[in-house]
Amino acid sequence: MPKRPTILVTNDDGIHSPGLKALAGALEEVGELSVIAPDRERSAAGHSLTLHKPLRATEIAPRWYVVDGTPTDCVTLGVMGVLKERPRLVVSGINLGANLGDDITYSGTVSAAVEGTLLGIPAVAISAVEPSEHGLATAAAFAVRLALVVLERGLPRDTLLNVNVPAREVRGVAVTRQGKRSYNELIVEKMDPRGKTYYWIGGGEPTWELLGGTDYEAVTEGKISITPLHLDLTNYAAAEALKGWETLLA
Ligand code: MN
Questions:
Q1: Mean pLDDT throughout 131-158?
Q2: Which has the least CB within 10 A, 63, 99, 153, 160?
Q3: What is the spatial distance between Cα 214 and Cα 233, in angstroms, rounded to a whole number?
Q4: Cα dihedral: 139, 145, 146, 151 (round 10)
Q5: Residue 94 is assigned to a structural domain of this protein
Q6: What's the pTM?
Q7: In 3-state terms, what secondary structure has residue 230?
Q8: Are residues 11 and 84 both part of a single domain?
Q9: How confident is the prediction for the chain on average, in pLDDT?
Q10: Is residue 242 assigned to a domain?
Q11: How far is the CA of 197 from the centre of ligand 1 (A)?
């Protein structure tokens, strides 16, 4: 019997998230899992790495580790320290809620996959737009199908996949581009019981620009969106357009 592939599973909602449990439960049939996840919710942790305190990885069940750090810490510790064998795939999720458009720059779920990619391991981030039991089961079943394809075919260099599974009945799969979000009333300003002002980020209702071919458009049409993300953030057209600045600034 051929050796089963090793898969590192992580998330940003923490080790107790039902999304992590659904994902790990489903991926068991694909390979040998190691689950390494933050001890608490670290949503919107971005790609932060802990450098100024020691980190501990505690094995709470066979091959389930809890880390007092960020999603990025989990992947780094897993690959560079905890796991005896280098995983063949990193899967991050299932996030409880969408990771679309500009929001992915804040996302701990996506950042864990970014870290896998930086370490040269194919990586996938998966989010359920509607994190109900049904939504998580749908996303978990899709994660299995996608993991099998990625393990067989690999991914383009420096590229990870950001997957969003829509709320309703799934009507297909679309390879998409990043959408564009416009926040309304991003900051909510209120007064605390002692009369001092405080602010709450993300309190407003978000709206989206209606652009064709985007992740947002796909999920609103009931499709599973797969956005390939590239780690080279260079804007090549801009680099060309700004070439004249070299002499201007010399
Ligand atoms: Mn999250």
A1: 97
A2: 153
A3: 18
A4: 140
A5: yes
A6: 0.94
A7: strand
A8: yes
A9: 94
A10: no
A11: 27
Q: For residues 161 and 238, what is the distance between their CA atoms, to the nearest angstrom?
A: 25
The answer to whether the bond into 94 is cis (omega within 30° of 0) is yes
For residue range 212-229, list pLDDT tens digits in order: 999 999 999 999 999 999
Q: How far is the CA of 98 from the centre of ligand 1 (A)?
A: 9
Q: Is the pLDDT of residue 185 over 80?
A: no
Q: Report CA(81)–ligand 1 centroid distance (Å).
A: 24
Instruction: Identify whether residues 123 and 201 lie together within a single domain.
Output: no
110 Cα: distance to centroid of ligand 1 (angstroms): 9
The answer for residues whose C-beta is within 8 angstroms of residue 4's C-beta and 6 or more apart is: 30, 31, 32
Q: Which residue has the tokens 């600034």?
A: 249
Q: Domain of 123?
A: 6-177+214-233
Look at 210 and 149; give whichever has higher pLDDT.
149
Query: What confidence score (pLDDT) does residue 207 get?
Result: 83
**Token pair of 219 as six digits:** 């999920």
Q: Over range 103-128, report the average pLDDT.
A: 97
Smallest CA-to-CA distance from 30 within 163, 142, 152, 147 is with: 147
Relative to beta strand 64-67, strand 57-61 is antiparallel
Cβ atoms of 225 and 176 closer than 8 Å = yes
Give the tokens for residue 24. Answer: 């790990």
* Token reading at 59: 């094995």
C-alpha 120 – ligand 1 centre gap (Å): 24
